[in-house]
C-alpha cells in the first residue's frame, strides 16, 4: 500500500489520540508505527504533516515501540531519514533527533549493543560541539537550534544512563567558553559532572583527566560505557530539594575520598565557570543548575561551599520563586558553612515581608508561608528535656502573619502553624506589649469554634475548626496551658451543636492519648447530662458509642434507659445498640444486663430486639476476655470461645442484618399532578420473593424535607405490584437525586439491607396546576399572575424546537394540565405552580414550522435556567 494522504493521516491520528489503547488493539494498530516510519520519507506529504507524525512518536513512544527491538528499528529508521534529508533548511531535523532519542530512551534500547545508540551518540555530541559533519549536513541557519536540541537530547540520555558523558566532560567544558547556546550546554555539563562525581566516588576513583581531556566527538572510536556499567543507573531525581532521606550510599561516598590537588583545582574551576555564566540562564534553569552543583559539591572534601557565595549575594533579593527555592535548598544543604547569621536574618526578613504582600496570589502566598515553616532556624533544637535554641522568627517579625478568621482555610492553617511555633517558645507576656502568642491562639480557636457553632452553618467552617484544633494538638502536645482550654472549648462546641458528632469522632481517632482521654471524659459528661428525649438523640448516641467506657457506668446507663423510651425508629435503635456494644467491650456488666433485657422486650423493630437478645446471651455466657474477642472485628471464630458461641455461628449470622445485592428494582412511572404536593410514582419489581420491604429515601443537601419510608408487605417476581407513591416536599423548586436504601427479609428468614441505584427527580416532576379559574376568566387570571411576577422576579425568552406533531402535539403531550388559556393551534398560556411557593408562566405564541418562541416569567430567578433547559428538551422527548 502506498503512502497515505494528509487527510487520511489526520483521520488516523485523530482516532489514535481518542483512545490509544483501543486503536492499537484494533486492525490498524499493528501497522501504525511501520506506516509512520515509511511515510516520513514520502515526497507526497508536506513537512507540516511529517512534523505531526513525529510529534505523535514523541507523545506515545511506549505504544508505537513497545519493546527493545521495535525501539531499535524505529531509531535506526529515523536516523536514516535524518541522513537522507537534502542540504537545504528543513523543519524535520530537530524533530527527527528528538524522536530518535525518545525511541531509544523510552524503549530501553540505549546501550553498547545497540547500533542505533552507537550512531546517535557521536552525532549528537558532534552537533552539540558545532562540528562540521560534512555533506552540508547542518545548514548555517539551523546550526544553533540544532546545537541546543542536541544538548537537550544528550541531557535526556545522560539522565537515563548516568555516567554516559563522563568521558566528554573536558569537551563540554571547552564548549561552554565558545560561542553557542549557553543554557543547554550549562545544564548538560552540570548534570554530567554531578553524575560522574557520584559514580566515581562509589568505586573509589577520582576524576583523573576527565575535566581536561578533549576527545574528538566524531573520531569513529567506540563509545566508552565503562562508567555507565559501573553505576547502577539509579541516582536521586533532579528535583530542587534536599530531604533528609537523601543521605544515601551515593552521597555518603562523596566524603570517602579526597581529590588530588590538581583534580580539586580543575573541579573548582569548572564549577566557577558554570556559576559565572548562570546569570544568562532563565530562572528555572538557574535553579536547576544551582541544585545540580550543590548536590555535586555537598560534603565533598576540598570544595568549600563559599564558591556559591557570589551567587547567594546576587539571589538573596530575587523576586523569582524558583530562584528563591534554590537559595533555600542551598541553605538546607550547606547551612552555616555558606550562610552567615546576617544572611539568615536577611533571608528570613525577606520571606516574612514577601508573605505579607496584599497582592500575592494564593499559591505564592502559601509558598512563602511554607518556606517560613521549613526554615531550619524556625524549629527548636536540642534533646528533649533540655533548653532548645530560640526561634529566629520572633513575635515582632511575624506580627503581620498572624492568622485571622478572614483568611481562606489554607492560608489560615499555614499562619496558625507559624503561631504554634511562636507559642512553643512559651514567652512571657510583657507589660505594655501586645498580647502573647498563646493568648492570641486561644482567641483565634474560640473564634473558629464560634463560627462552627452557627446553626445551619457551612460544613467547611466546622472542618477548618477541627483542622486547626488538630494542628494545635500536634504542635503543642505536652503543654497543658494550651490543651486544657482547647478541651473545654471543644466540649462547649458539642454542647451548642451536637450534629458535629461525626467530626468529633474523626478528631478523636486522629489525636494521641494525651488529648484523647480527657476529651472523651468531658464529652461523655456532656452527653449523659442531657435528657434522654433530646431532639439530637441520634448524635448523642453516636458520640456515646465512641467515648463510652468503664468509667461513669451509672450515669451512662441512666441516660440509655431514659433514651430507650424515645428510640422509635430503626436508626435510633441501632445507635442505642452500638452504645451497648461499646459498654460490653469495655467490660461493663451490672446494670447493662437489665437494660438489654428491657430492650429485648420493648424495642419495636424485630432486628433491634434480636440484637439486644444476642448481646444479653453473650454477656450471660462469656467471661470478659472471651466477650471482647467475640465482639471484635474479626469474623473468624475465636480459639477460646465457649461452646455456645462455637455452636451458634449460624444463629448469630441469622440475627445480624446482612448486606446483600439488591433483589428489588425501582423505576419511576408517569407523573401525577393531583393533590397539594408533587408525588413520585414508583414501580417495584422483585428478582426473588422478599417480605417486609422497607424503602428509605435520602436527598443530598437541604433541597427537600425528609422523605417518609415506603413499606411493602410482600413482593414476588412475575406478579404485578401496585405502584408506590412517594410524596415530595421541596424546599426549593430544583431537581434532586434520591439515594435509596432497602431493608427486607428473604424467604430463608435473613434480614438484609442493600443500596439501590439512585432515583432522579426531574424538574417537570415538580409541576402542579393552579386552581382552575371560573369559566371565561382564564385570560384575566393569567394576566394577573403574569403581572405579579415583576419587579421581584425575572423574565426571559426561549426558542422551543417543535417536532413533527407541531405546537398542539407538544402542548397536549407535556403541558395539557397547566394550560389556562388556549387558542389552538397557535397560542397557549401556561401557568405552573412550583412548590413550595414559586410559579412559572409561559406564553407560547406565533409558532413557526420548526419552533415557537416562548416568553417566560417567574417570581424565582433560579427557575429560569431550569425552565430553559426543560423547554429546549421537549421536542426531543416527543
From TrEMBL:
<protein>
    <recommendedName>
        <fullName>AP-5 complex subunit beta-1</fullName>
    </recommendedName>
</protein>
<feature type="domain" description="AP-5 complex subunit beta-1 N-terminal">
    <location>
        <begin position="35"/>
        <end position="104"/>
    </location>
</feature>
<dbReference type="Pfam" id="PF21590">
    <property type="entry name" value="AP5B1_C"/>
</dbReference>
<dbReference type="GO" id="GO:0016197">
    <property type="term" value="P:endosomal transport"/>
</dbReference>
<dbReference type="Pfam" id="PF21587">
    <property type="entry name" value="AP5B1_N"/>
</dbReference>
<dbReference type="GO" id="GO:0015031">
    <property type="term" value="P:protein transport"/>
</dbReference>
<keyword id="KW-0813">Transport</keyword>
<dbReference type="GO" id="GO:0030119">
    <property type="term" value="C:AP-type membrane coat adaptor complex"/>
</dbReference>
<dbReference type="InterPro" id="IPR048981">
    <property type="entry name" value="AP5B1_C"/>
</dbReference>
<dbReference type="GO" id="GO:0005765">
    <property type="term" value="C:lysosomal membrane"/>
</dbReference>
<dbReference type="InterPro" id="IPR048978">
    <property type="entry name" value="AP5B1_N"/>
</dbReference>
<keyword id="KW-0653">Protein transport</keyword>
<dbReference type="Pfam" id="PF21589">
    <property type="entry name" value="AP5B1_barrel"/>
</dbReference>
<dbReference type="InterPro" id="IPR048980">
    <property type="entry name" value="AP5B1_barrel"/>
</dbReference>
<feature type="domain" description="AP5B1 C-terminal">
    <location>
        <begin position="781"/>
        <end position="873"/>
    </location>
</feature>
<dbReference type="Pfam" id="PF21588">
    <property type="entry name" value="AP5B1_middle"/>
</dbReference>
<feature type="region of interest" description="Disordered">
    <location>
        <begin position="234"/>
        <end position="260"/>
    </location>
</feature>
<feature type="compositionally biased region" description="Basic and acidic residues">
    <location>
        <begin position="250"/>
        <end position="260"/>
    </location>
</feature>
<feature type="domain" description="AP-5 complex subunit beta-1 beta-barrel">
    <location>
        <begin position="690"/>
        <end position="759"/>
    </location>
</feature>
<dbReference type="InterPro" id="IPR038741">
    <property type="entry name" value="AP5B1"/>
</dbReference>
<feature type="domain" description="AP5B1 middle">
    <location>
        <begin position="263"/>
        <end position="627"/>
    </location>
</feature>
<dbReference type="InterPro" id="IPR048979">
    <property type="entry name" value="AP5B1_middle"/>
</dbReference>
